[in-house]
Write a structure and sequence with these properties.
about 150 residues, mainly alpha
Length: about 150
């Protein structure tokens, strides 16, 4: 019973850490997608890839923040040494970033074409695509991080 309750607590903390990391990623995506095209106009369509650098930079910020939250609040360290643990975390995050970029491109090119008016705020196709990509990749990340990187 104790393991069951601890497992639920860990999922809850992972969701909170993931949610906070997603906020960091979305805010940074908003900032980068606004400012980078002013200095690098190709950012909006870099060889057919929309907002590539904004995506990479915002995801990188979120990965570092999520690592800190994961080791501080969510998972138990000790399955690997600190350097190997961080290397695994970054490696898995790199693969997750590629998946997220792929999902983002699919959503922005084929699903979300007009803003979603939420009365107090309108979500642009960029933001809706980013939110959906984050949601899909987050599910995979929990299981991989729990079983590969950290101790249960």
């Amino acid at each position: 019973m104790k393991q069951f309750i601890l497992g639920k607590k860990q999922i809850f903390l992972f969701v909170i850490a993931g949610g906070l990391s997603a906020v960091v990623e979305i805010v940074m995506m908003k900032v980068f997608s606004h400012y980078i095209p002013q200095f690098f106009p190709q950012e909006t369509n870099f060889f057919g890839i929309k907002y590539l650098f904004s995506n990479i930079l915002s995801t990188g910020c979120a990965v570092l923040f999520n690592y800190w939250l994961s080791i501080r609040f969510v998972f138990e360290r000790g399955k690997h040494g600190k350097k190997r643990e961080f290397a695994y975390f970054v490696g898995i995050s790199f693969v997750s970033t590629l998946l997220s970029l792929t999902f983002f491109q699919l959503f922005i090119n084929f699903v979300f074409h007009t803003p979603l008016d939420l009365i107090v705020y309108a979500l642009s196709p960029i933001m809706m695509s980013k939110i959906m990509a984050i949601a899909l990749v987050s599910i995979l990340n929990y299981f991989v991080k729990k079983n590969v990187i950290f101790k249960g």
